[in-house]
Structures are given as C-alpha cells and as structure tokens.
Design a protein that fits this description.
Bound molecules: 2-phosphoglycolic acid
Strand content: 5-15%
Low-confidence stretches: none
Number of domains: 1
Shape: globular
CATH architecture: Alpha-Beta Barrel
Structural class: alpha/beta
CATH class: Alpha Beta
Number of helices: 11
Largest sheet: 8 strands, parallel, barrel
C-alpha cells in the first residue's frame, strides 16, 4: 500500500509551552496514524517537543540548519546540535528562506549534502513565484532548483531525500494549486530526476505538495498519482486542522 509523508512546518510560531501542548495533542490523536508524520517546531522548542513525542511514531524535524557542523557562524544551528535533540529530518530551501534570507541553490545544495552526510533526511523545497509562472518559466525555475539542489547526491542516498513542491503563490494565501496542476508539476519533477538518475529513482522519489493544504482539500490532492504527501504550514498549528490532514484516510 502507498504511504504518504505528512509534515507540519510550524514556522516562527509557538513558545516552548505552546509547542509541547500541541505535540501532546498530536501524539494522542495520531497514535494509530497509517502514514509517516513529521512536525518541525521552532529550534527553541525542539528539545521539549522531542521529549513530548517520545514513544510515538511522529518524526521530529527542523525547519532549517546551517551549512557547517561547527565554527564561527553566528546565529546558525549545526546538524550535530539537531541530531543531539533527536531531530531526524530537516526542511531545506523553503521559499521563505530563499526569498527573505536570499538563500541560493548553491547554499541549499551544501545543506542537502551535509544533512545526508550527517544522517538527517532532507526535505528540499522548490517552487515558482506567480510572476515566474505567468512568464512561462515554471519548468526552468523548478527544474533548476531540483537539479542544483540535488547536485552531488549519490543515487543510493536519493531515498533519504523528499522534495516538496510549494508554489510560492499558494503559501499562506488560501490559494491551492489545483490537484491536476500540482500533479503535473510533480510529474515534471520526476522527469528531471529521471534524467539525473534513472526512471526507478524518479518513480520512488517522495514528492510532497505544499501551499494552503487544508483538511478539506487534502484527500483530492493525495489522490493524484504523483503527490506523495504534504508540507503543511498554517493548518499544522492546531491539532483540529493538522490531525485530519495527517490522518486523512
Ligand atoms: P501554508 O504553508 O500551508 O501555510 O500555505 C506551507 C509551507 O510554507 O510549507
């Protein structure tokens, strides 16, 4: 049976106490979840959420990490520090990192390679802006982000990598790509991966959709053959909206 990968990106929301309260609710409500579930609280709440979800199948994720293991990098967080807290997955290249903090494909690629080397499973985010889509540049933009983001990733490491397709115009806006539109971009991403590796690698790749995923649109998105999960922002901040997404079937 197909398994989905449902991830919650809490972004810069929630104190430690609020994070633990949500984690406790999720642990209970998702105890019998069929699918892979991950939550990515803010860095400050990772340790406490890690404790709260202990004994459950919920995976602890980080929203970002630095491109080095240690050194004079003020404000950065090392993969070693994340691992020590029980983090197993890391979101990299989110469009908010690309656009607000000017992260380049090259920097994101360094992080992807370092995450794999350190045993953290990366979620590589890609996606076009509305202007890029309207200018007919969707494939050029997303294709470059996929190729550059995966540069140097060995064929054998590809199963550790998830790609999240998040059209920038759909993030936090209430606008969702139609399931058909999203599926078409996911199929395009698979075709890029097939040219970089091979058809089997492309077929096996987990590709999440992100951008205004809600309880009432999750099932139709997940019904599409190329959509293997969701990266959820706003709706992941409350158990009442994240639970029906993470346990949509
Ligand atoms: P959203 O965010 O669900 O609030 O649109 C998705 C994301 O940025 O990962």
């Amino acid at each position: 049976m197909r398994t989905y990968y449902m991830a919650g990106n809490w972004k810069m929301h929630k104190t430690v106490a609020e994070s633990v309260a949500l984690a406790n609710e999720l642990k209970q409500a998702l105890a019998g979840a069929k699918d892979k579930v991950m939550v990515a609280p803010p860095f400050t709440a990772l340790a406490a959420v890690g404790q709260a979800i202990k004994g459950s199948s919920i995976i602890l994720g980080a929203q970002n990490m630095g491109p080095d293991t240690q050194g004079a990098h003020t404000g950065e967080v090392s993969p070693l520090m994340l691992k020590e807290l029980g983090v197993r997955a890391v979101i990299l290249g989110h469009s908010e990192r690309r656009h607000s903090y000017f992260e380049t494909d090259e920097l994101i690629n360094r992080k992807v390679l370092l995450a794999i080397e350190q045993g953290l499973d990366p979620i590589l985010c890609v996606g076009e802006t509305l202007a890029e889509r309207e200018a007919g540049r969707l494939e050029a933009v997303v294709g470059t982000q996929v190729r550059e983001g995966l540069k140097g990733v060995a064929r054998g490491d590809l199963p550790k990598v998830t790609i999240a397709y998040e059209p920038v115009w759909a993030i936090g806006t209430g606008k969702t790509a139609t399931p058909d539109d999203a599926d078409a971009v996911h199929a395009f991403i698979r075709s890029v991966v097939a040219t970089m590796y091979d058809g089997d690698a492309a077929k096996a790749l987990c590709i999440q959709y992100g951008g205004s995923v809600k309880p009432d649109n999750v099932a139709e998105l997940m019904a599409k053959p190329n959509i293997d999960g969701a990266l959820v922002g706003g709706a992941s901040l409350k158990a009442e909206s994240f639970v029906p997404i993470a346990a949509f079937r």
